[in-house]
Every structure is written in structure tokens, then in C-alpha cells.
Amino acid sequence: MVFETREPPHIVVFGDLIVDYWLADEASRAGEIESRPRRYSHVDLGGAANTAANAAALGARVTYVGCVPDSALSVIPEMEKAGVTFCRISGCLADTAGARFRLRVDGGLRRRKGRDAKHNHKSVADDVRVAMALLSADAVIVSDYGQEDTAALVQLLSNMRRSVPTLVVDTASPHTWAGVGVDVLKMNHREYAHALSTSSLSAAHDGSGEADDGIGEEAASLASLLNCALLAVSSDVHGVYLFDSERQVGRTHPGTISEEDATVGAGDLFVAAITLHLACGIGPVTAASLAQAAVDFSLGPRRTVRFGRSNLYSDDQFARVKPRSVFTNGCFDLIHGGHLSLLSYARKIADFVVVGLNSDESIRELKGPSRPVLPFEWRKETLEGLGLVDRVIELDGISPVPLVEKFRPNIYLKGGDYSRVSLPFFDEISPLVDSIEFTPLVSGRSSSLIADRVLTRPGN
């Protein structure tokens, strides 16, 4: 259990109190959503309310702080039932909660944004109870979806930042939080693209080095610009990409999501879970992996994702979480069974797999002027297309030590044709990693053997 040796952490949640109304009518065309009457089959907690409920379900002591308009008073019993304590502040500018209307269409989900509620956070910042809650907090979550006037809250948290051990912000407006020194700034890939386009980095962004979903190395520069320790960019089925101010430091790998899975609220659960684990002293990459596991565990044919267990480690699924990074390197000139065995094993034991791929010049230095058979870009495309590697970096030289020193993986992995005795640079790599491992040897498989057979065939 997370809290075997200590009291559960106290998490204070600020942010947009949103109510999700699920329309009872089924529709086959998007246009029908607008024309049909609003009959609700179900009402769910959304936004900060769902985040707070998830944190409580995971076992934390949770206090929600904010303006709760009269129209949203009905959600208070449900949140209290989930274990959330309320610190209700008066002084709302609006008398309604934010609302989203959702409907299933042809097996998928459609969302129609409803009314927004602009809340006055000046009243929150002026309330002495808020300061007392912050002083007792092990972590603070802000769910900032643009429905509240956050200027006063930003100023309050900036002033009290030293008193808040862990600050996690889930935001659609990341530049608002640039001066606070946030520990984890979380956004989705659309919000990331917008943040990048509206920053000073937009002119330098050329799209190179991007993943399929457009999340590239510029994210590290954005993390530096936003002054956050960790930038977490969620990208649906691709997982969550993690960047510090220098480089990508990790990535989560979600389980299989079927078309029937409702992912509404998955981000709320991820934020709650990563905050909980950070508050328990767990490192950010490991915390993100455990948060992804919590999301995977809770996905299913439901309306809104909500964690259903108070003990995160009570299921075998969480014993299989692999919050580790692996680095390996090689020429990978002609992919064969030995390469696949190595990379498959790396994928099995780690969340983040980095390959240092030898440059064409370094291969000629290692193997002679007739190699490589395939140029660097072709080899890189092949590795990335296997779906086993998170990042491929050019190794421009014989020694992998500079790249190992840069990425500091948990494990340095090589094939069974090496050993502790024969591995070059073993003494230099060993102090930089937790362990050096070797996969079983796949005999009779090598790029050199394949190349020789091709070149010696009649007619060549």
C-alpha cells in the first residue's frame, strides 16, 4: 500500500467545478445534438470535482477549495461521499457551475460545451482558511480549464510557493503559470500545440524530431520557458510525454483502449494519481507510470473515468508497472531476430526505451568502408516503425558514454554477444546506470552475416 509507513498525504484541490450532463437521447448525426431536448440520463462530476474525487478514491486526504455556486450544491454530497472535504468560499461572480453536455454517437463520444461559470478567485485568495489549508497541504492541484479568473490564485500560490511541497497544475493556459515554479504542468496535445504557437519558440519550430502526434523536442524548451520542473503532455492512445527543461525524460504507455472505452475524465485521474505519488516522495517518471496504470485500471465502458479502489497496490496490475528507462546502442544495419529480441525485451522491462544509433561514419570506422548497407535515416525509420522504441538518437562516434551520461537510464542493455568482460566502456558506463543487463544470445543472427550472404550470392 502507498501509505504503509505514514499518514495519507493531504491534497488541496483548487479549480473549475464542472458538472457533466449526459444526454439521454441517442443520435446518429451530430446535428441532432442541438435540436433534441435536454433529458439527462446521468450527471457526473467534472473538472476539479472529478480530480478531487479521484484523489480521495486513491486514498489521499482531500480538501476542495473554491466557489461553489448554489446551482452546484447538489454535487457536494457526492463529493463528500467520495471522501472530499469542502472549504466553500463565498463571493462567486456567477450563480451557476460550469457545465458540459455529452452524448454517445455511433459508439463514440461527442461533447457539446455548455455554459461557463466565471468565478472570482480574489475572494478565494483573501480567505484566511485558504492559507491555513495550504500550510497543511502535502500537495496542491489546480484544475485550470479557463473558466475562472486565476490571477489572484496565481499570485497567492506564488507568494506561498515555499510552503507548498508539491504543486501540480492541469491547465489550458500554461503561460499564466510561468512565474510560479510549478512541479508538474500538465496539458493535452492540442493545448501543447497552442502553447507552442503562442510562445517565442514558434518561429524556431520546424516540426523536426516530432512524434506522430506532433510532440517534439521543443517541449523541453517550452518547459524551460514555463519554468516548470516537469511538462506532461497527454496524447490519448500515445500516452503522456514527459519533459524537463533539457530533454524528454520519459513517456507512459497506456493499455489497449477499445472504441467502447470512455476516456472522459482520464486526465483528471492521471493528475490526481501523479500528485499523490509525488506527495509520497516517488520520482516524477515513476509517479507518471503509476498514474497511467491507475487510468488503465479504471478504463472501461463507463461515462466518466473514476478510480474505484482506495488501495493502489491491491491489484496484480500495479505489480507489473515498469517505471524504468533503458538505453541501448548499435548499428542496426540490417534488422534481424537478435535485434528484435533485444528491443522486445527492452520494451517489456521499461517505460522509456532510447536507442543510440551509430552514424554512417562511425559504422565505417567500426566495420570498414563497405558498411553500412543502409544509410542512417533508413535505419532510423525502420527502428521507429517497429513500435518498440520511444526515441532514436544519432551516436556520432564509437563510445556510447556521452549519450548514457546525458540520458542517465536505469538500465544499459546489450545483446548476448557481449558480457561484462567483453563490453567496451563497461567501467565508464557502470557508475552512470542502476544496472547493465544482457539479453540471451540469438545464435546465427547478425547484420554482417546477412550482408555477406547477399554480397556473395551469384550475380552480385
UniProtKB/TrEMBL annotation:
Protein origin, superkingdom: Bacteria
InterPro entries, A to Z: Archaeal_FAD_synthase (IPR050385), Cyt_trans-like (IPR004821), PfkB_dom (IPR011611), Ribokinase-like (IPR029056), Rossmann-like_a/b/a_fold (IPR014729)
Keywords from the UniProt entry: Carbohydrate metabolism, Multifunctional enzyme, Nucleotidyltransferase, Transferase
Signal peptide boundaries: none
Domain (Cytidyltransferase-like): residue spans on this chain: 327-418
Keyword S-adenosyl-L-methionine: no
GO molecular function: nucleotidyltransferase activity
Residues in Carbohydrate kinase PfkB domain copies: 10-294
Claim: DNA damage is one of the keywords in the record: no
Listed name of the protein: Bifunctional protein HldE
Species name: Microbacterium oxydans
